[in-house]
Amino acid sequence: METNKPYAVFMGFACVDEYYRMDNWMAKGEKANAKYIGPVAGGMIANAACVCAGYGIKTYVFDVKSTDPSEDFLYDDLIRSNVDISRVIRLDSVKDSKCLIFQFPDGDRSIFCVNEEPPRYHLSDEQLDFFRNAEFVYGTIGYVGILDDVKGFMNFLHENGVKTFFDVESNYFCKDWRDYVRHAHTVSMNEFGFETFRKGEDMTEEEFIREIFDLDIKNLLLTLGAEGCRLLTKDGVDISLPANKVDIVDCTGAGDTMNATFMATFMLGYDLEYALEFANCAAAMSITKEGPRGGVTTIEKVKEFIRNKNK
To answer: Mean pLDDT, to the nearest integer, of 251-263?
Structure first.
């Protein structure tokens, strides 16, 4: 066993986020100017892992990465954020991905993910023991998909009482998506992911929500940008919260902050309604800062934000 302290494992790693600034997005076939700002340490899983570690939770990342020394700064960044990288495997045969992030004057952005074909990886008995003792495993369909037996791994986690959290985005729609999210503690979708999966299954909103809970998923968290968020549970809870009004600087990583914070609140013992408010406020705080790690904060700072907004 890795540690006696409850821990979370984030399946995935950091990647290079290349930032550009644009005044307007272009229509198909048009040309536009963009100003190159530079590379920063990003990646949706790494963003979420850093947020979780900021709350004092023992946090690991697990992934298979390249040996490219030019990306060593990604490891240093995670270490500074108190994320344990001892479970990252580096192989010469792997090519890493990156993201191109185009920012607009209003703080919104468009993101291009430049993905390489991921390797197929077989977990050893020792690695399975590591996962068996986690309280939560956090991932995406894309990252968990590097395993050679996804369905077997997800059943293994469920049988051993390990809770799973899936960030399900529109670019991960596939015919076997149910094998990943079945029995999940929480599935999170933004408005685009929800519509992509719903339409991909040719279902109404009500039918798709019913399908989610028929998969024995306990919580469906919908992040809705400027419209706030909505939480539905298998037990019939349905809570919506408006977005908090803040000065927007950079929206990158807001969803990662919302997700990681919501998951962390269960490890911290918060009740459902406060967990949602806490995560919603953490996400609002994240967009007031530049860069994908803007959501990294502490429990006390989020509580202070909540107290101030409720005055």
So the answer is: 93
